[in-house]
Design brief:
The protein has 207 residues and is mainly β. The chain has one helix at 200-203, and strands spanning 15-17, 20-24, 29-35, 40-46, 56-58, 61-65, 70-77, 80-88, 102-105, 108-112, 118-122, 128-132, 137-142, 145-149, 155-159, 165-169, 176-178, 186-189, 195-198.
Amino acid sequence: PVRINSHGIVEQLPAPYAGGAIWCTRNGHLTAIEQAEKGWARHEFHLRQQPNGPVLVTGQTVFAATVTGELARFEDAPGGLRLTWRTLLETRLHANQPRPQLMLAGNTLLVSLDAVGIAAHDATTGKRKWVASLPGDLLAVVGGRLWGYDPMNRLTALSLTDGRPVAFLDPGPFTMPVTNRSTEKLILASPRGLLVSLGSRDVAGAT
């Protein structure tokens, strides 16, 4: 085993990245360990502020939110991480607020903003597409809809196009929703250990 200096306290599991791994420390050090021609290469980028929640890693692209309400995208580039864009979430995320979730659906980056609601940004440019005033936990994207668990204990689907609520579901005994970023399935669990997976056909008729 090889001991690696993390450069601070790591609050999330390292994620696979470019043949190696990437992580972000509590003080905002984004660190990537990548395979090189000879051994391993270490690349770092400092966010200049604390991250607010885990970074989102997809392929060789990384998205991160900060405590002051910034959203940033990074790409793997020769010589290290390259900042592609940085934008404001238009809300300050206080330390006692739930940490925001990040979810990618095609070219749309979805961000939960606690009481403010849910925002969608263009993943390529960072430009905000829409904001929905309905707060909730992000669960999954199924059939072009973002499903979330709202404060009224309902499953609510928002249109990815404009953020409008387009469907609702009563979860019944499945009061333990699961965030799924890997597949287009809505996964729900019950306190008694029951598990259900719903695809686009199963939720298409929800109103």
